[in-house]
Amino acid sequence: MSRLTDILTEQSFRMLARLPLRALYVLSDVAYPVVYHLAGYRRGVVRSNLSRSFPEKSQAELRRIERDFYRRFCDYAVETIKLVDISPAEMMRRMTFEGLDEVEAQLGRHPFVFLYLGHVFNWEWVSTLPLWVKSDTTHCAQLYRPLNNAAFDRLFNHLRTRFGSENIAKYDALRRIMGLRAEGRPTIIGFISDQSPHAENIHDWVPFLNQDTPVFTGTERIGKKVDAAVFYADVERLRRGYYRCTLRPMSDNVRTIPDFKLTERYMQLLEQTIRRQPAGWLWSHKRWKHRRTPD
User: Fold this and answer.
1) Contact between 126 and 244 (Cβ < 8 Å)
2) pLDDT given at position 295
């Protein structure tokens, strides 16, 4: 029965993906009151995260951000489904990249460019980057965490790779990256680095959105090992269904940067992105599960 459910789920998503985005946005509008008002999906987490992140805002302002977040969350869902079927021409009309020339120039001097990303809507569309890359020899990839549900894992693997990008399982990241270096393949790799690390993987804490926040430092540690140039992928929603990703240089000489400073700079840039469009970050994520213990 589980296998049948997985097949039906996967086929349902593929059928939905054939609908035009304007129809999918109607579904998003219908889903919003169900997800927000009726189900109250993680509303306590969202409300707590917002109030602690923006203590200077009034309750009315926080509720407006909260409502806007759930609207964008529902849009994120249908936009992600659409990735299964969207044409390259429509994708390039709805998503734009700025700063890619500098990224490709760095690949002439470094074997890799690492992109720091956050869970800013719609981060899934950043995986379409190969559509804009000019050089046929440039490889694109992103780290991902395999999903427990087999149907969803297949679906997300398909939509993240259908335009030519490679999925690298986070547990296999260093081995695969070293393999790419041995192959001599100039590669752009995206790292979504704003998750909450397991307690044993916490090596640094930074001030982020008015809170003491544990961070992953693996991106900069691997970057130093393979001499990667590093950029920040600043995603901005222009209007419904249209996004711009600005690739902002962070360092072309990571080995000279003191440990953790690159990660701390990434978190500063991510906070600027969130404060610019506060409803556009994944507030339903339990980002602050850990508290620093006294030494």
Assistant:
1) no
2) 60
Give a yes or no: residue 238 inside a domain. yes
Quick check: 230 and 262 in contact, CB under 8 A? yes
**Which residue's entry shows tokens 């249908």?**
78
245 touches 234 (CB < 8 A) = yes
Tell me if 288 is assigned to some domain. no
Q: Are 117 and 123 within 8 A, CB to CB?
A: yes
Contacts of 79 (CB under 8 A, 6+ apart): 21, 24, 122, 124, 125, 241
Q: Where are the beta strands (DSSP E) in the chain?
A: 95-98, 112-117, 139-144, 166-169, 187-192, 204-208, 211-215, 229-239, 242-251
Q: Is residue 23 part of a domain?
A: yes
**10 Å Cβ neighbour count for 42?**
17
* Domain, as residue range, for 60: 2-280
CA dihedral 116, 120, 122, 128 (to 10 degrees): 0
Q: Is residue 294 part of a domain?
A: no
Which residue matches tokens 């009151």? 33
Q: What is the mean pLDDT of residues 16-25?
A: 96
Q: Is the peptide bond before 49 cis (omega within 30 degrees of 0)?
A: no
The predicted structure's pLDDT at residue 260: 95
Kindly report, residue by residue over 66-90, the tens digit of the pLDDT. Answer: 999 999 999 999 999 999 999 999 9
In tens, the pLDDT along 201-219 reads 888 999 999 999 999 999 9
The count of domains in the chain is 1
Q: Indicate the pTM of the whole model.
A: 0.94
